[in-house]
Amino acid sequence: MDLKNITGVEVFAAGKWNGDEYTEADLDEMVRAFQEDPQRRPPLKLGHDGEQKLLQKDGYPAAGWVTNLYRTGAKLVADFSDIPSKIYDLIARKAYRKVSSEVYWDITTNGKQYKRKLGA
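Above: the chain sequence. Below: its structure as tokens.
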């Protein structure tokens, strides 16, 4: 299977989202949670549908994986890897123009508590 990578994608920003305020400190917390929990890399998904029917139809566990997460100013930026060519081509053709992150609040993983964590 031919897999692709995409780097430097803005996935979130400080500000007000769905009525909740996010600060640069929250972004830093998401980066910390990512770095301290390497076994649980957030998946790249096609929308918020929990079933991910398009991906499952093709036998993909995810549309890719977050392999790096960092803050640039007030923006949270990610690098993605292991993107199937079919999905990569759709992204390149701008079939998916917006990124909508899933953020977990007050989550404990591997015995560590995080105020904010990127989920997908």
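Residues 12 and 76 are 5 Å apart (CA to CA).
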